[in-house]
Each structure stands twice: as C-alpha cells, then as structure tokens.
Amino acid sequence: MDRTPTVKEGIAPSLVRALFTLISTVIGFWAVEFALFHTDAYYTILKHDSAAGSVETYVRNELRRNRTNPRQVLTIGDSRMGFLPRYANDMQTGYQFASIALGGSTPRDWYYMLRGVDPHANRYSAIVIAMNDFEDAEIEEDYSVRATDLYYLIGRLKYSDIPYFAKSYQHDPKLEWAAVRGIVLKGLIYKRDFQDFLLHPADRIALAQLARKDSYLWYYNYVGSNQSMGGVVVDWANRTVTVPPGFTDAQKAAYQYQFLAPKPPYTGVRSAYLHQWFGKIYEHYRGSKTRLIFLDLPRGPFVRPDQPEFNPHSSIRELGLQPGVILLSEHLFDSIERPSLFVDQMHMNGPGSAEFSRTLGKQVGRTLDAL
C-alpha cells in the first residue's frame, strides 16, 4: 500500500543536507572572492596600466613616496593636467610637489583617489585640482553615468561605499545595480584582467613586481613629446583648418571637431555633477589645514572665440566662497596657449608641460606663502 514518506524516513534530512551544501558553497565562494579581490592579494598581480591598475599604482606610489619636506602639494586631474612635478620641484619654492593626475579619470574618481592617498585629510598643504573651465560648460559626455568609473575605482571601493557610489548612477538604474553588484563581487570587474593573467602568469607577475618597484620613477621622470602643432592654422572667419604636410586626415578631422564643431548647449547636467563631487572633496577637507586650489587649464593651442559665458553659480565659483578654497587666475596660463606647446588639440607637449609645471609651482608657492 502506497503512503507518503514521513520526516523520519528521509525528506527532512535530505533538505537539510541540500541546504547545508548550498550554504557551504556560498560561503566558500564568498571566502575566495573576499580573500582574492577584497584584500591586497590581487594587487600583487594586477596589470599596472589597466583602468584599476592605474589608479592603484598612482595611489600606492603616492603613499610610499619619500617626503623630504613637510609642506606637500598634490595635484590631480585628467590627461590634460600636464603637470610634471620634477619641474616644479626644481624651482625650490619651499614646497614639494607630487601628482596623481590620471588620463581618463573624472571628478568622481578624484574624490576616491584623494581619500585613498589622504584618508585623514592631513598630509598636504594643498590639493591642486585642474579644470577645463570655471563655468561648468557642458561637454558631450554625461559623467554621472560614466560606467568606466567603476572599473577605475574598484580597488578603492568598500562595502560601505555602496549606498553613495551606487546612488551616483541614479540616472541609469542598470548602472546603479551594476555598481552594487561590482562592489560586492569584485571578481566580476577584474574578470578580464584575471583572464589575461592566466594567459601569461609568469610575465604578468614579473611586470607587476617591476611596476611596484620602479613605476614612480617612470612617471616622475617623464618628459613628454617634442611634437607640436606648429604650422596648423585655424581660420575662424571661414571656419577652416589647414594642416602642414605630415599630418593625417584623422588629425585634421579631430582639430576641426575641437575648434569648429558647435558646443553643447548649457543644460546644468554637468554643473550638477561637479557640484556633487567637488562638494564631496570639499567635505573631506572641510576644517582641515589643507587648501583646495582650483586652476583653469590652458584652453588649447588655439582659443575658440565662443568661450562659455561667466557663470556666477558654477560649482567652482560657489565653492570658491568657502573657507580654505582658492581659485587661481583664469589667465595664469594664457602664455601657453600656442601651437608650439601642444602635441594635439587638447594636450600640452613636453615643452608645454615643463613651462606649465614651472608656472604652476611658482604660483602655488606664492599663493600659499601669502596666506
């Protein structure tokens, strides 16, 4: 006669065993995930010039840097921040300069990078932050939904960062969830890097060791290219760009876009983003002895006649009213805005970076001494 098995005959024990196996598997997976990706373990094999590797290399180099002067100044920005510390240090201003400016980085990245190198907001006399302008002019990209920030910052982000960091992607719910998932399961973000490691593990380990040992000198001794935009002519009246022999069609197209394409109309999107993240940086340093110094970068080898209008409510101008915040003159680097000092439509070349670095070093020294 058929009958339903009782608990004593094995249904409950089998469920318990299945549940125990599931829990053990989850705990084991999380333990491996945490041990490998939530500690310093993975940094020992991380590719130093990947998105995450670049941030980690810059931050860790700065933490280990030899400080010979108690008056420290740190600069930060993206690839346009052509500041080379050794030129400023050669000026003997009484301050020691360093930089963690990183190509492709954003103000969101800068906050977490600064928190990484200066967790207690007490290591520097000043933090110098590079801006494209003081007016919060719009750009093509909306940085508030820049997915790559998660890949840059994955080594800096902690569980406690989930609420604020993920919420900063609120305009794109998919990215908001991706940020939560990525911070909890960092292996998902490191996946491609780890796969690359498995292809050539010995080479990767050797390169990672070399980078940890010498990469600070690679960056500190960098001098930049001598190539320039000499011979390029922009005719504003006829809206044409002329390039000399040796320049490619792709370069000419990039110049035309940079100097002649219409600028995006002002919407306030970028301003809201900059208010948020410069506000976070200011809150980190509020009440400390560290000054925040903002500079307006050289606009380029050619200065467009349609410059953004004065915006009294821009993020930088409003922040400049707060104690401990300094705005350098917007015309400090006008003399650098010439083709011979730029390697392309946006970036200074070696001589341009050297002149920029000396000028900035002297001005920052004078500004801080006058306080």
In words, what does this structure look like?
With 371 residues, the protein is an alpha/beta fold. The chain contains 13 helices and seven strands. The strands form two sheets. It has a five-stranded parallel beta sheet. Strand 4 and strand 5 form a beta hairpin.
Task: Characterize this entry briefly.
The chain is α/β, with parallel strands linked by helices and 371 residues long.
Q: Please tally the β strands and state the result.
A: 7
Element string (H = helix, E = strand): HHEHEHEHHHHHEEHHEHEH
Q: Tell me, rounded to a whole number, the average pLDDT.
A: 93
**What is the count of DSSP helices, taking H or I runs of 4+ residues?**
13
Class from helix and strand fractions? alpha/beta
Helix content: 40-55%
- Cα-atom radius of gyration: 25 Å
How much of the polypeptide forms β-strand, as a percent range? 5-15%
Overall form: globular
